[in-house]
Amino acid sequence: MSISASEKPLSKVFTSDYRFAIPAFQRAYSWHDVQMRQLIEDVADACAVDDGPYFLGSLILVRDERGMHQVIDGQQRLVSLSIVFSVLLTLEDDPQLAASLAGLLTETGDKLRGIAAEPRLSLREQDEGFFREYVQRGDLEALFDLRETDIATQAQRNIQTNAKCAYDMLAPLREDERRRFASYLVNDVMFVIVTTDDISGAYRIFDVMNMRGMPLTPSDVFKAKVVSGISSAARDVYARYWDDIMEPMGDDNARIERFFADLDLIFTRAPMCQSLLADFGDHVLAKYIGKGQCIEFIDDVLRPYAICDEIVHRPGESLLPAKVRDLLAGLADYPYDDWKPVALWALVHSLKHLDDPDTVVFERSGRVGPHVSLHDGERLVQILTLLDRVTGIDCLNGKSELERRTRSATIVRDLRKGTPLQRVAGFHVSGDEQRLAMLHLRGELSIDAGMKRLLLIRANEQLAGARITRPRSLNAVPIIPEHVSARPPFASWPAGTCDYWAERIGNFVLTQTMPRSLDDVGDFATRRAIILRSPSSQRFPLTRALLDLETLTPQFLELRQTQIIDLIAQAWHISYEEIVVAEQEERRRERAGGSTHRSKRTSKRVTVAEVVRAGLLRPGDRFVWVRPRKHETWIITVTEDGFAGEDGAEYATPTAAARAVGGASASLNVWKRESDGRALSDIWKAYRAAM
User: Fold this and answer.
1) Contact at 8 Å (CB) between 206 and 233?
2) 213 falls in which pLDDT band (50, 70, 90)?
């Protein structure tokens, strides 16, 4: 078995030197938007610092007799990087840069060199055509237009979700920022490529690099450093004490790493660690070790913060006042936990008796000692309330991890100075941030299911005036079915209305029912019965309101949308009325031709009505799809909010029209305007660029 290893930038990886293929026995593409967001944020942060190459790990490949490189380890990163290249290609106007980006996705071919035109990366058979059509050929407009029922596998859903995530992160960048990011990504992001000609040998390499042994946790490393600085007489006692303190975290390495990263932020006010072991050791531990205060670190830092971390982890079991428990439980609803350093600092500086080893913190602890209590409960409640507000608005506005943790570092800095809460800079939310949050709430939500769930929880609790106990399983599900039938009430709805409401918060409801239970349920009455089946679902007033609803109408969804937005604005103290007035003034200036405002460019599905209002389409425009091999010609005509076929059938989206006549492989780019030959996908792209 021969083995070779080399370090290469992406500009040398996505070339004709490698023809990547995912073996059939490999798992499908499984990254979600969390991993995609992390990848882009990590590269963007490294690009901003620009102190050298960024290492993206290793690729383990087996070269077969055809010259193909079977990917044993690295599929998720290769697919995700291809998606990022495709997004950058879609956003690029410079022909030379666009050609360079396209070359990273597909080999254009060279007859003289005997190189065939083919994609750089081939996925499993089930997903290969989908990936090639939408990502490698750069047809993202068609990808964004797909509905749930148009997608065959979970891997394809992940591809669409991650393409939207990447687009929403990269589209708002200025042109120079995006090109700098692209240049750094291609030239300075590195892989170590390990290649062998033996598949069993490749798996042995994979095991050695990823699975061998039990790696030390950060706690193990820091414990060794601190305990070594304690006198021999007390060393064993404090080594056991350290283990007792960290025991509740168990072997959850991710939680342990996050705990020490949060401590690093609290003590250094640096939002991110480049290397946790080095940064925390040099910036925090070294000060205690250098002063001979290792015991003080364990007693005064590790123990109280670990106790408070456990309180944050399971607030409902703590002996704290109900209001504090409710606020901590509410913060745990968020998909990110960058609020934790602020909560930890506030708890440590608000709780009494943390210095007593016998302090009872949790119910049924079995200990006998003083109960933990607050010495300034009102201030703690104020801090957690303000923290919930800024966390919610930042999550809704899609702030990056670096931005969120920078806010936390700013808050901790001011709190440590004793700054009055109304003057803490990190608790301030600008008018623009509030306005952007409301724009997101009122439009199509390009957020994950967890954030939709959180928004509905906040709205329901604001309406109820108190915290509502969550059942173990709680989901945000759509009221309108994904596949709309031709039966009432939807048959009487205007074309495009169901599509308009598909991703708006007014169309979602909290229920204990699992989403898959509603997959094949097309009529409203049956969906309502399933949503309300569990009594736990009816704890939520906005869900319970469906009990009194006999017929679902667009007017009901409009009222529900307005109610939910108003409730969230109240919960997060967003100046909704001022924003509405400002938007009315903005529209007045637009009509007068004096506004230069541009909304945030996102991956949200473009509707026909929007393109018509923008003047890029006109009702009556005819689009033709010529299929010479089948001797077929199909024609659709633009209406005010959709398309009409020659047989009178109405379609809300161009993809729906294409699939109705052409099958599963059809998309936007098959339709050409009869008057000028322009592809519908190009018109959609022009509209998105003008957003």
Assistant:
1) no
2) very low
